[in-house]
Design goal:
678 residues, alpha/beta, 6-stranded mixed sheet, 6-stranded parallel sheet
Length: 678
């Protein structure tokens, strides 16, 4: 049924005023009758005439007004239609299914269609799908590419009822029909400018030579400078081709800056510099490999550099010979597929494999009064040697309380031989000319469990994370001393990953190595880096159980009380140094271990920059020194004949009492503070 058209608003009031005036006139006439009947009669006649005129005007002129309004609307619609036709923005109307029902000239010109095109817009622009057409929502936007131009498509749902309600002339009628208005905004130039601006952003990169020292050692000394020059030339030539700035920071480190437009070329080529630099060969037995860290797409240059630094750490932690690109939200890895990844740990692992394969028997030993790290590293080397079918022993003169739970868990496993652990005498009897001695967690011969063993065996390997001092094992066939590693167990975990694909750690062995890392890092709080967590992840994959390890290292009540007593008796020196002596009267199986634990506890006190715990054991004074970051305890312990790391160090003072050792320590601290050495 055709909807009735009724006026509303101002037009309704304007057309209704004669009827309203007639009503007022009738009321006025009634009032006249109360004053004078004859006057009322005259007024009645006048009112009837006026009412007749008003009715004629209302009903006769309404049709005329409607016709005039329709004519005006038609003309106004034609004007609007022409304006839409001439609109420079491509515009079209769709029905509910996406079929085109009207287009303007710009739309027809852009899409190369003729007037009267009535097919679906999805046929015309395939990048628009049916689900893109707004049904429940009122509008939608998407980006498309049409004939090498970028368009932002804006689609608006237009309800028919809304159009009718917006009218000031005609009242709405009940319908749920709607149209879809489509605008095509050409953003080709804007996107081109954005891409150009993005291409000009600065990319920061760090380039490290993974095996610099090892590569030089594998070549004659007279050719070393030539090898370095060739590597420099390769790197500079490669990045100079992309208008990059290359700066050599150290002998094996480079800093590079270039525009982002060249980064995609590097990615497309998979950073072929990684393979290109391996072709440098002038007699070197070992191919040179690179690690590359790239920082990009951050707000500032400093953040880009920080991303580059984190990327290079990731590249090194993953084995080197690869590139890592870190943006604000994502990390991408390239390369690293070579089976000859000559990262230092990988190179050392290959060398260790050759030594193990060339000997009949392996003897592993750590330092005196072995701790968890020494035993964890030893058990890891044991598994590597057993993988190659070699008879292997671990030298252990004294089982301390700290490692007893680990040893008991190993011995309880039936697959281990009864002679896996030997004392010094037994180790000397078992050693022969074709025996290799592998020393872990120390590089000082006097600190080893059996120093005479070093003189008896010709093949010696040293795996340690402590800095080398004046005293060191001189005749080592292979020496891998990495002060930046958190522990010897971390180093062994790395070696196990590279030495052979056949290495299969038992869960109890993974627990031992994981324990060594955990104890030496104070539950991953000290000296932890990317490589530390990579090693821990490898051990977790091989069955290490965090809960099981935690249960192994729960303290007895007696040990807990003694450690608390050591902390309670601590003296604060110069407001920054905590110094304590382990009580002699208390029974302690492994006093040096408790001393180290107490030194860690003292660092939790606010204001303490360095802690020192002195323990008397076997006619010697053992000093456990710890710090967080502000004090280098290593240099202090070196003054007392010891050593270690910046944050973890120690010393052994024979022939003196604890009080004398304390006085000597205080004197050393005074002197170094006065000289500005700490």
């Amino acid at each position: 049924m055709k909807p009735k058209i009724r006026f509303k608003g101002q037009l309704k009031a304007y057309t209704s005023w004669p009827l309203l005036f007639s009503t007022i006139l009738v009321l006025f006439t009634v009032g006249i009758y109360f004053v004078d009947i004859r006057a009322g009669f005259v007024m009645t006649v006048c009112s009837l005439i006026c009412i007749i005129i008003a009715l004629v005007l209302y009903f006769r002129n309404k049709a005329i007004v409607v016709n005039d309004l329709i004519n005006f609307a038609t003309q106004y619609g034609q004007v609007q239609r022409q304006l839409l036709h001439d609109l420079e923005i491509p515009y079209a109307l769709l029905d509910e299914s996406g079929k085109i029902i009207w287009t303007n000239d710009a739309f027809e010109k852009t899409t190369h269609i003729k007037n009267g095109y009535r097919k679906s817009i999805m046929t015309l622009l395939p990048e628009i799908h049916k689900e893109d057409i707004p049904v429940t929502e009122s509008e939608n936007e998407l980006m498309i590419t049409h004939e090498d131009s970028d368009f932002r498509v804006s689609m608006h749902k237009v309800m028919m009822t809304e159009m009718m309600e917006a009218s000031e002339v005609i009242e709405s009628f009940d319908t749920e029909s709607y149209l879809v208005a489509v605008f095509l905004f050409d953003e080709t130039k804007i996107n081109a400018l954005q891409r150009e601006n993005d291409d000009q952003k600065v990319v920061v990169g760090l380039i490290y030579i993974d095996n610099y020292d090892e590569a030089l050692e594998s070549i004659e000394e007279v050719r070393r400078s030539l090898l370095i020059a060739l590597i420099d030339r390769k790197i500079n030539k490669y990045f100079s081709s992309m208008d990059a700035l290359v700066k050599k920071l150290e002998k094996d480190k480079y800093f590079v800056v270039f525009r982002k437009k060249y980064l995609n070329d590097l990615i497309d080529k998979r950073f072929d510099i990684l393979e290109d630099v391996k072709t440098v060969s002038i007699g070197n037995e070992m191919a040179v490999t690179l690690s590359i860290g790239i920082g990009v797409e951050t707000g500032t240059y400093i953040e880009n550099y920080e991303n580059a630094r984190q990327s290079i750490d990731l590249a090194l932690g993953r084995g080197g010979d690869q590139a890592v690109v870190k943006s604000k939200d994502e990390i991408f890895y390239y390369g690293g597929k070579s089976q000859k990844a000559e990262k230092k740990a990988r190179v050392k692992a290959h060398a260790l494999r050759e030594i193990i394969e060339g000997t009949d028997k392996i003897i592993v030993m750590g330092h005196k009064i072995p701790d968890v790290d020494a035993f964890g590293a030893a058990i890891g080397v044991y598994r590597a040697a057993k993988t190659f079918g070699k008879k292997t022993h671990i030298v252990m003169n004294e089982i301390t309380t700290s490692i007893r739970p680990l040893i008991e868990s190993v011995i309880a496993t039936e697959e281990y031989e009864q002679d896996i652990l030997l004392n010094s005498v037994e180790a000397l009897d078992a050693a022969d000319e074709n025996t290799a001695v592998i020393v872990v967690d120390t590089n000082k011969p006097s600190y080893t469990e059996c120093e005479p063993l070093l003189a008896k065996c010709k093949t010696i390997v040293v795996l340690d994370h402590h800095r080398q001092g004046t005293e060191k094992i001189e005749n080592a066939t292979l020496s891998y001393v990495e002060p930046y590693a958190s522990s010897a167990s971390e180093m062994v975990a790395e070696i196990l990953q590279y030495i052979s694909d056949d290495v299969k750690l038992r869960p109890v062995e993974a627990d031992c190595i994981y324990s060594g890392i955990m104890i030496d890092t104070n539950n991953f709080l000290t000296k932890t880096g990317v490589r530390t967590f990579e090693a821990a992840a490898y051990l977790r994959r091989n069955g290490a159980d965090v809960t099981r390890v935690r249960k192994l290292f729960r303290d007895s009540m007696n040990d807990y009380k003694i450690r608390a007593e050591i902390v309670r008796n601590a003296e604060v020196y110069f407001d920054n140094f905590a110094i304590s002596i382990t009580p002699e009267e208390m029974h302690i199986d492994s006093p040096t271990i408790l001393g180290a634990q107490a030194a860690n506890e003292l660092l939790n006190i606010n204001g303490i920059k360095g802690s020192f715990v002195l323990t008397e054991f076997q006619d010697q004074i053992y000093i456990s020194a710890r710090s967080i970051d502000e004090v280098n305890v290593q240099v202090i312990m070196e003054r007392l004949g010891g050593g270690g790391h910046m944050n973890i160090a120690g010393a052994q003072l024979p022939g003196i009492t604890a009080e004398e050792a304390k006085a000597k320590l205080l004197e050393t601290i005074d002197t170094m503070l006065k000289d500005g050495d700490i």
